[in-house]
Amino acid sequence: MNTYFKRYVVGASILVAAIVISMIVQVEVAPPDHTRLILERSNRVFISPPCFNQAVVSNNLSDSTLKKAKELEYIADSACTEQSLTAVHKSILLACLEQIGLKESSWNW
Fold first, then answer.
1. Which of 12, 17, 79, 90 is the most buried (most CB within 10 A)?
2. Residues 4, 22: one domain?
3. 13 and 52, same structural domain?
């Protein structure tokens, strides 16, 4: 066999193995700091958008991020918000695709 062909086969095999491994191995992915939240400033709590209709809120609301809510030391308003911001297990491949923007994140509200 030709040495170029052998190198091609070895390279292709390594690439296929890397892709298969990245689809099998799971990692824990937490919501990014830029995840959109609603701050309820009167009670110093934050609400995730999927849980907003269930929340009891005042008129003192603002749109913000998870990072800002942590900085202000706000707490989650309900179990719904806590669950919506819980880290999830995903394959390395899906986590990488979300990180570079080729796949929509679970927290893209």
1. 90
2. yes
3. no
Please tell me the pTM assigned to this model: 0.78
CA distance 83 to 105: 16
Its domain, for residue 105, covers 1-27+89-109
Cβ atoms < 10 Å from Cβ of 21: 12
**Are 81 and 99 part of one and the same domain?**
no
Distance CA 88, CA 69 (A): 20
Tens digit of pLDDT for each residue in 68-108?
A: 999 999 999 999 999 999 999 999 999 999 999 899 998 98
| Residue 20 CB neighbour total at 10 angstroms | 11
* Whether residues 80 and 93 fall in one domain: no
pLDDT in tens, 10-68: 999 999 999 999 999 999 999 999 999 999 999 999 999 999 999 988 899 999 999 99
